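Now read these lines:
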Amino acid sequence: MPAPSPRAPVASGRSVFGPAALGACVVVAALTATGAVSASDYRRPGLEGQWSSRHLTAPMNSLRVIAGPGQPMLMGERYGGQVIDGGAQFVHPHEPDPTVPDENQWWFRGGVSFGLTEDWEAGALFVPLELSPKVNFSNVTAFVTRGFRLGTIDLGIRLSFQTPALKAYDLKGWSFNPGVPILYRNGAFRLDAAVLVPIATSDGAVGVNVPVRASVSITPRFFAGIESGAFDSHVGEPQNFTLPLGALAGYTELFGSKVVDFTATFGWDDFWRPSPPPGRDHVEIKDYRVGFGLVYHTLVR
C-alpha cells in the first residue's frame, strides 16, 4: 500500500550520574540499533496519520525531541507529588495551613525518545531543571516500552525510572514506575490508559497509578482530550488516594518532512480525595499544574 504524501496534513511528552552521559548512552543505543537497517525499512515519522491514529510506540528509526507535554510515553509518570512531563511546567501547590505560603514552582524538562524498531521505544528526560523558587537540577527520568499491535488495540510493557538526585525534594533514592499501558484507536477517537506501580527505594513505598486519557482529533491537525484516573502513592494509607482531573490540547504542523506537535495541558493532580487527611477538603482546586511546549519528530539517518 503506497505511503501517504509527506505533505498531507497530519497530527501525527543534579543527578548522581551525569545527565550528559545518560543522554549519550540513549543516543548511542538508538544509532546502533538503527544502523543496520536498510534504507527501504525507514519510515518517515508522522505517516501514521493524525493524533488519534498513532500507535503506542514511535515509528521505527524516528526521533522525538521532547520539549512539550502530553506524549504517550510519559503518560502516568508520577513520583510522589511530582508529575513528570516534557516542556515548561508551572505548578501552584496549596498548603492547608494558612501560616504556610503557597510557593509557586517553574520547571523545564527536556529529552529525546527513539523508535528503535516498530515495537520498541526508549528515551530519557535528561534535562530536568527546577527554575523557581530555586534553580536546581532534578531527577533524570528514563523509559523503555515494548508495544504489541493488535489491530485497533495496542498493549505495552513499560519500565521507567528516576535516578537519585542531590537536591530534589525527598527523591534521593532510585524510583521505579513499571506498568502496562494500553491504547484503543477508532477513527478520530483515542483512549490511552495504563496500570502502573510506582516504587520508591528511599522509603519502600509501593503505590498504584491508573491514568486514563480520552482524546479526539477535531481536525487532522487539532486534537484535544480530558484526563482522569486514580492514584495512590502508598498502598495501605487511604489518605493518599486521589482522583486527578485534567485536559490536553494540541496542534500539529509540518515543516518539510518534519512534524511538530504544539501541546498544552492543565491538571488538578489531587482533584478529589475520598478520605482526605486533616485540614484537606475532598475537592482541591487550588492545587493545579499547567504545562506547554512542543515535540519535534524527525527521521534518524
Q: What stands out?
A: Residues 19-299 form a domain with the Porin fold (CATH 2.40.160.40). Residues 1-43 have pLDDT under 50 and may be disordered.
